[in-house]
Amino acid sequence: MAKKEVKTNKEKKNFWKEFKAELKKVIWPTPKQLLNNTAVVVALVLITAVIVFVLDICFDSINKYGITNLQSTVKNSITANKNSEDEKATEENAETNKEETSTENQQQAEQPEEESNTENNTDSQPAESE
Fold first, then answer.
1. pLDDT tens for residues 67-100?
2. pTM of this prediction?
3. Distance between CA 111 and CA 119 in Å, rounded?
4. How many CA atoms within 13 Å lie on the side-chain side of 104?
């Protein structure tokens, strides 16, 4: 077990030595390079933000004036279709009602004639039996 602990200590020491050696190999930017690179990054971020802002305004205006108008047009056409279907259904109901009414009127017109015939028969029958 003692050997394992020694290996871990050696590995830890070895890691830190290698870490320091790698940091010495790094080429650090000069303050001027750092300032230039920072300016480039900030400029690109601002340009991207402006592009996204302009696209957002464009899409919003397209949505307001294009899609919203299209939606209202579609709703109006759907409403018009429903209204025309309702009118057709109302006309059909009216025609059906007229037909039913005329049929009922014809039946009612025929019934009084039959009733009057029946009354005439009943009136004439007692007269005959007397």
1. 778 888 888 888 888 888 778 878 877 777 777 7
2. 0.41
3. 12
4. 6
Residues 6+ apart with CB under 8 A from 37: 29
Cα–Cα nearest to 72, from 63, 83, 61: 63
Give the phi and the psi of residue 28 in degrees, each rounded to 5.
-80, 140
When pLDDT is averaged across residues 54-75 and rounded to a whole number, the result is 87
- pLDDT score, position 130: 44
Query: What DSSP letter does each residue of 65-124 carry, written as one string?
Result: IIIHHHHHHHHHHHHHHHHHHHHHHHHHHHHHHHHHHHHHHHHHHHHHHHHHHHHHHHHH
